[in-house]
Each structure stands twice: as C-alpha cells, then as structure tokens.
Amino acid sequence: MSKRCLSTLPALLLLLAVGCAAPSEEDSQEAAKPGATLYFTAIPDQNTTELQEKFQPLADHLSQALGVPAEYVPAHDYQASVEMFKNGDVLLAWFGGLTGVQARDAVPGARAIAQGEADPKYYSYFIAHESTGLERGDALPDLSHFKFTFGSESSTSGRLMPEFFLREATGKAPADYFTHPVGFSGSHDKTVELVESGQYQAGVVNYKVYDRRVAEGKTDPNVCRVIYQTPTYADYNWTVRPDVDATFGEGFTDRLQAALVAIDDPALLAALPRDRLIPASNEEFEGLRKVAEDLGMLR
C-alpha cells in the first residue's frame, strides 16, 4: 500500500465511524413524517373561548420540548372530542374519566399517559340555590322536588359519578327520582351559572371549577352553595393514540409522557387546570369503566 493510501486511512475510518454511530435525538425527530403535527384536543368542560387561549402556551411548550409542531384543536362538545380521537383527527386528548374510557375502547392500543396529581382522588359538589334553604351536610339531602341539572351527558364529574352516588343514596334513577325533568347544562361553568341565577335550583359540578369561580369572584358561595361533597373517584387524563410512534418516530409516546410530567410551570397547565401532572395508566380507570357499564354509558 502506498504512503498516500496510508495517510488517508485514518480519515476514512473516521468517516465510517461517524456514519455507523447511533442516531441522536435530533435524528429520531427527523424520522417524523414530513409535515406531521401533534394535534390535540380537550373536553370543553369550561368556557370554550378561554380554553383556546389557555391551551396555546402548552402547544408552544410541547412544540419546543418535542421538536415537532403541536396544535390545539377545540371540540364543540364531549362526544366530539371522542370522535376526533377515534377518527385520528387528533392524536392526543385531555379527557374526563368516562370520555377517556370511551376513546380507548374505540381505539385499541390507546394509552392514558398522564393525569393531574389530584385526579386519582377526584370529587364533585352537589350545589343548590340559596332559596332552597339547603345547607352543607355529610349526606346527600332530598332533592327530588327541585329543578336539577347535570353538566354534560358524558361528563364523569358532572354526570356519571354523581348519578352513581345519587342512585346509591335513593335507590332510583334520576328520571324516577326527580319530579321535574333533569337538565344537562353542557359544561361545569354553565351548571354553576344556571344554579346561581335560579334557573335550576340544584345541580352537580366538578369541584375544581366551582372553587376556581369562587376564588375569582365569579360565583357567590352564599347564593350558589355547596350542599354535599361526593366520595372520590379517578377522573381526568391525557390519552394518546397508538400510532404516534409511527408518525413521529419510535419512542415518541414515552417522550411525550415525559414532557408532560416534567412541566413545572402551572401557567402551562392553566387550561386543565392543574399545578402538575403525574403518570397514568389504563388500569387506573377500570373501576370507573365498571360504573359506566352498569349505568349503560359506554357507547
């Protein structure tokens, strides 16, 4: 071999070594399909305009943390969020317990990956207008003769679990228990507004929304009163479709979970609203699934 060939050998070996090196995180991000965007949605359990504004910082953060575009897509109601997830219009969704179970049933392999720190032990408030004369107690009072509203028909904290506890306390389905037709407000904020205005005399609401409204001065707790706090149950969660790894590269689901759990700025989670997130799994919602099956709320 000539001296010239020997002198070029180290350079050739270096090029081969670089070419055979393991792919970096940047390389794995390049495995994403061209133009792929992480579209995500959330059940509209609060004012939809406010949700649009509050989710933008989270979308920006996920884009930066994961190296792929992320975009929030609003859903006009709870079932629309499930349909969007089922059809692949979104790959990630912030669901309630019931809608999460429905979505994972519709998409085999879908995973619950994160939840709020308080979500494994969530609860609801039964609320009433001051004109009812009802006060807070340790047991659910007789509400049968009052005009009553749930939240969304597919809400865990605004319908499913409150109905379960109501049936346990009265031995009757809502249609048989209440003397007036039961309402469905569509969201927790709307439920509080309807009860506080006196359009409905009583209702049931997610405790976080009620407490937030009181803290912000939007609701007078003397006019719209908490009369009963339910036992706890598992609720909200981020659920992801199984095809995200094929779309954004192997291991993307785990990276997404890690990025969500690592958020330590409550402002990024204001739309949820949560101070921080913890890992979640499908198994944690099996008890809720059983309740939904018993009450015929799985579609």
Q: How would you describe this protein?
A:
It is a single chain. The protein has 299 residues and is of the alpha/beta class. The chain folds into 2 domains: 34-120 and 235-294, Periplasmic binding protein-like II (D-Maltodextrin-Binding Protein, domain 2); 123-229, D-Maltodextrin-Binding Protein, domain 2 (3-Layer(aba) Sandwich). Helices cover 41% and strands 16% of the residues. It contains 12 helices and 11 strands. The strands form 2 sheets. The chain has a 6-stranded mixed beta sheet, with helices on both faces. It has a 5-stranded mixed beta sheet with strand order 7-6-8-5-9. Helix 4 (78-87) packs parallel to helix 5 (97-106). The longest helix is centred in the N-terminal third of the chain and has 19 residues, at 48-66. The chain is globular and about 60 Å long. The N and C termini lie far apart (75 Å).
Short structural description:
With about 300 residues, the chain is an alpha/beta fold.
Main sheet overview = 6 strands, mixed
Query: What name goes with the CATH superfamily of the largest domain?
Result: Periplasmic binding protein-like II
Strand content: 15-25%
The CATH class of the largest domain:
Alpha Beta
Shape: globular
Give the tally of β-strands.
11
Overall pLDDT: 89
Can you tell me the residue ranges where pLDDT is under 50 for at least 5 consecutive residues?
1-30
First-residue to last-residue Cα separation: 75 Å
Examine the coordinates and then state which fold CATH places here, giving the name of the CATH topology of the largest domain: D-Maltodextrin-Binding Protein, domain 2
Q: Order of strands across the widest beta sheet?
A: 2-1-3-10-4-11
Percent range of helical residues: 40-55%
Which structural class should the secondary elements be placed in? alpha/beta
Number of discrete helical segments: 12
CATH architecture of the largest domain: 3-Layer(aba) Sandwich
Q: Count the domains.
A: 2
Order of helices and strands: HHEHEHEHEEEHHEHEHEEHHEH
Radius of gyration over all CA atoms, rounded: 24 Å
